[in-house]
Amino acid sequence: MKIKINPKIVAFLVLVIAGGFLALWVYKTKYAGHNIPPPPASIDQLPRVEVDAKDVFKNPKSDWAPSEDPAFDITLPGATPPPKSAGFLKTVLGIKNAAAAESKIIKTEILAPGGLPTKEDIKTSIKDNGDGTAKITVIKPERYFREGEYVLQVEMLSADNQQILTTKQNFTWGVLAINVAKSIYTPGERANLMIGVLDEFGGMVCDAKLTLDIKDPSGATKTLSTDSGEIKVNDICNSHDFSLAPDYSGTYQTGGTGTYQMTLTAETQNGTYSISDKFEVRNAVAFDVERVTATRTYPKNTYPMMFNITAN
């Protein structure tokens, strides 16, 4: 039995295979960085060049709540995002971009204000995003960390691997806190708002100008502020004594069901800070859980965490 081979099919397969090898060669040459010289054996011998944070850090967020792990997207030096057509080759053949995070980022370090070492051992994690950028996440220590201002310092190899590029990004962590007594309310309930403000060294701030925007599920926004008197500073703040009462407080009348988005902005003598949070309104909840605790943990003391739980 003779098998007839269609010459057109053979020619097509040859073109497909040849095109694949050509695409691989182009990708490896242009995008995988094979023309980039390797770094010297001793990286410490390379000259250091400071670059503007605006040219490196992509996300504008610089204020983080105490419950968050700060995360920053950075542009890797010499990164050339490969074309979409190269995605298949990267996946199948396991090719990595020469500007991948593991080959470019030399060091990340968290510093205190003024570039001083922190008392806490604050670590970071690095994830390559696969598009010429990487995400650096600051991991909150398990036991304790000081609320205030921090500095993320990054050292990277330049595009040609012949320089060390250094850059810094200031951020605040925990200088603002906003708590609602319950994370879930029912329609028409009044939400109690508890707010704390600290400075860059973790000290209490009792004269901040606060604005709280609350957007309900319909898109309507209600603004509460210290100027309007709807956010009040409590006397306990100025005394700096141990207390479970919040330094600033206010109330908000809930409406229909859905998610309520909160944006808190504080203007202080040393700058303006802003964080976001949310709470939910449902028609019914099996258990009504109200948290009773401090908004801040200053001065140092033992602060209890209590819950009032009511079955509905």
List keywords for this structure.
Immunoglobulin-like, 312 residues, mainly beta
Uncertain runs are 24-35, 85-99
What is the strand tally? 20
Can you name the CATH architecture of the largest domain?
A: Sandwich
Gyration radius, rounded: 27 Å
What is the helical fraction, as a range of percent?
10-25%
Number of domains: 2
Q: What is the terminal-to-terminal distance?
A: 81 Å
Structural class of the helix and strand makeup? mainly beta
CATH superfamily of the largest domain: Macroglobulin (MG2) domain
Q: Outline the biggest β-sheet.
A: 6 strands, mixed
List the total number of helices. 4
At the first level of CATH, the class of the largest domain is: Mainly Beta
Order of helices and strands: HEEEHHEEEEEEEEEEEEHEEEEE
| Average pLDDT number | 81
Description of the structure:
There is one protein chain. With 312 residues, the protein is mostly beta strands. It has 2 domains: 37-87 and 97-173, Sandwich (Immunoglobulin-like), CATH 2.60.40; 176-311, Macroglobulin (MG2) domain (Immunoglobulin-like). It has 4 helices and 20 strands. The chain has helices at 7-31, 87-93, 101-104, 235-239, and strands spanning 48-50, 63-64, 71-75, 105-112, 116-117, 123-128, 133-139, 148-157, 164-173, 176-180, 184-185, 190-197, 209-215, 221-225, 232-233, 248-253, 258-268, 271-281, 287-292, 306-311. The strands form 5 sheets. Strands 1, 2, 4, 5, 8 and 9 form a 6-stranded mixed beta sheet that branches. Strands 11-18-17-13-14 form a 5-stranded mixed beta sheet, with no helix packed on it. Strands 10-12-16-15 form a 4-stranded antiparallel beta sheet, with no helix packed on it. The longest helix is centred in the N-terminal third of the chain and has 25 residues, at 7-31. Residues 24-35 and 85-99 have low confidence and may be disordered.
